[in-house]
Amino acid sequence: MIASEILNAKILIVDDQEANVALLDQLLGEAGYTAVTSTQNPAEVCALHGDNNYDLILLDLQMPGMDGFQVMEGLQADNPKGYIPVLAITAQPGHKVRALEAGAKDFISKPFKLVEVKTRIRNMLEVRMLYKELQNHNKLLEQTVQERTMDLTSANTQLTQEIEERKKAEKSLHKTYAEIKRLKDRLQEENVYLRNEVDQKFNFGEIIGQSDALSVIFSQVQQVAPMNATVLLLGETGTGKGVVARAIHRSSTRKDRPLITVNCTTLPATLVESELFGREKGAFTGSDARQIGRFELADGGTIFLDEIGEMPLELQSKLLRVIQDGEFERLGSPRTIKTDVRIIAATNRNLKEEIRNGKFREDLYYRLNVFPITLPPLRQRKEDIPLLVNHFVAEFNNKIGKKIETVSTNTLSLLRDYHWPGNVRELESIIERAVITSQGNSLQVLDRFEAIQMTDEIAGGNDPQEVKALAELEHDHIRQVLQQTGWRIEGKNGAALLLGLNPSTLRARMRKIGIVRQ
């Protein structure tokens, strides 16, 4: 500790007797203290301390009008958890214990013994400087404490109490550092997750269209977004359930917190629980590090459970508990974690049918079905197709570096006449492919839709054998492409790209027509 720091300490003398003030002022000046002020009005002490934050207040306990005990009460009230640097001055032996109980750190007896006054002032200022170093320089504190402990102990045994207080402060700081580390780990997990989300390609751009069917969706989103109600998005694959979920989150009071997406179809069944709720290190074979789950990452924000109908039945009860009670445990940990999460779920399945088949919990369904929104398939809003085409052409022009400027009437008619089983997602894939292959500045769609259209037409007719034959044809074609790609669905050489389908659409088709890897 630098001696100049002690000599530059701010000291306030409070005594109604001018002679006492003068004596203490002279004593401190001769001892080398440079920042000494005084007052004979005890009512000014709280305001003066608030403005100057004194390192030491020499306070006479016996003053008319307002005694030293009342002054200490005022200081304590102004800063109930702060350090009150009072050195009490009294001629009454009974006042000493009372002064310490009221918050004084030490006392001086009248009449003054100059050596005692100097020693006690010096000791108390040393304690004050150490306290300030504790607040501002925790790393330096341990070395300073080790260097000063023996000196302080021999100088005044009363400093034992102060040392205990420093140890408590150190323990509190360690707890603070642990909390900071926990928050840092969580922020890192959020950043990793959000970077992965940014790297992923959205289902399609923002919801584009002006149809009556979309107007209903916009109205429903506007109604439910500001609320914390659970939303269930229903509709076929590719209709834009993910985009609507993002629109709800962006318009909610939680927009400044993360939107965490969980696609229940892409997570292996063995990892769904740890992905949702997290796991501790060693929770199971191969878990060599702690992982924060999606519900914990989404705390204060929104979690989007896409394809909720695919969630394993054994996990549905845990999801129900989170919805009802807002709590869960990480795998391998007995500690219950509280979370405040808004849930948006989506499915292309008929959950009532799944309930009848014993694959979905009825109580979970009613918890999710608070505010259902059914997204229309593209074939029910074909008037939006020209707007969507223009939007995707502009998007892929920018992405690929092409300059497609026109779309012919024949091309638009062809696209409007198709029944779009893959909905907007399928349209996006076809437009991207067309932008890549088009020559010149006019969009040229080379895809042929007749076979699928024929399937749809025959399905409404009276020739089940022919429908069956086309279904078998589709089955064989998809299986053949999968075999060519080594059953790889996603990626540059995946079957989804060769078939012109989104990977999730291809998986849904495989489930529907019973294709299983052998």
From TrEMBL:
Coiled-coil zones: 127-197
Q: Which domain of life is it from?
A: Bacteria
Please indicate if the UniProt record lists Mitochondrion as a keyword: no
Response regulatory domain: which residues? 10-125
Q: Show the Pfam families listed in the entry.
A: AAA_lid_14, HTH_8, Response_reg, Sigma54_activat
Q: Which UniProt keywords apply?
A: ATP-binding, Coiled coil, Nucleotide-binding, Phosphoprotein, Transcription, Transcription regulation
GO MF terms held by the record: ATP binding; sequence-specific DNA binding
A GO biological process of this protein is: phosphorelay signal transduction system
Q: Which residues carry this modification: 4-aspartylphosphate?
A: D60
> Where do the Sigma-54 factor interaction domain residues begin and end?
207-436
InterPro entries in UniProt: AAA+_ATPase, AAA_lid_NorR, CheY-like_superfamily, Homeodomain-like_sf, HTH_Fis, P-loop_NTPase, Sig_transdc_resp-reg_receiver, Sigma_54_int
State the protein's name. Answer: Fis family sigma54-specific transcriptional regulator with PAS/PAC sensor
